[in-house]
Amino acid sequence: xxxxxxxxxxxxxxxxxxxxxxxxxxxxxxxxxxxxxxxxxxxxxxxxxxxxxxxxxxxxxxxxxxxxxxxxxxxxxxxxxxxxxxxxxxxxxxxxxxxxxxxxxxxxxxxxxxxxxxxxxxxxxxxxxxxxxxxxxxxxxxxxxxxxxxxxxxxxxxxxxxxxxxxxxxxxxxxxxxxxxxxxxxxxxxxxxxxxxxxxxxxxxxxxxxxxxxxxxxxxxxxxxxxxxxxxxxxxxxxxxxxxxxxxxxxxxxxxxxxxxxxxxxxxxxxxxxxxxxxxxxxxxxxxxxxxxxxxxxxxxxxxxxxxxxxx
Length: 312
Description:
The protein is mainly beta and 312 residues long. Among the domains are: 1-33; 75-181, TolB, C-terminal domain (Neuraminidase), CATH 2.120.10. Helices cover 10% and strands 46% of the residues. The chain has one helix spanning 2-32; strands spanning 47-55, 58-65, 72-73, 80-87, 92-98, 104-110, 117-121, 126-131, 137-142, 149-154, 160-162, 169-175, 181-188, 191-198, 204-206, 218-219, 225-232, 237-244, 249-253, 260-265, 272-276, 279-283, 290-292, 301-308. Strand 1 and strand 2 form a beta hairpin. The longest helix has 31 residues, at 2-32. The chain starts with a helix and ends with a strand. Mean pLDDT is 83; it is low at 1-43.
């Protein structure tokens, strides 16, 4: 009886070890593929970069993997393509297109770069499209009232509502991740500052306050921090900074870099993407070193965004 029990116990241990080994191998493969139990968190394999670069005199959008591989044209529509923005709710990329008459239009395509839609075609300039997290409204800048003011369009009714009335230059507006606030850059009295407004109360709060030029702000995925650029003396070259919104603590990132533009967080919030002198860089805010992004081909990026890309 004892021998029989021992034999069965050994067999059970062997089966258990076998099952454990299988699960260990499977888990390792899942980790390598970027698929873990935290399925909701975007990983490197589930992200793409959409890059705006000039080729043959035209600004076009390109898409590639997070390691630079599989670079290709993203949309085959004619004209200049600039200022891309991705809407996870609609799984579409919105952008500004300049047609043959250099008239600005806001358009969108799906994640294959297909199913083209003309979203907004109006007189004057329309720039910096940004879709609310629920996919219901489109935020943009327009000069239909004179200076560039912020406006919002209901994507179902196409009704347009004006949001700012200060006759400043209001640009680069972005919804917060929860959709309750709007972050934007406003130039008033010759000075550009970052502002924050509550969508319901429409109270405007100054986020930054210095005497020097600032660049476009961007939210992190949790809505707790923003990243932007600021021109510092003596040569007023742009450097990267980050602000904790709750504590208002500001810190400069990579202070030795200069002429930085178009800073934004990756889809999972672990990296900051920016451009310095026609070179695209990725940067971990916890680190002190930026890494050039490996772009295949002779492309000089002017803008770039991270996109959560559904795995096949």
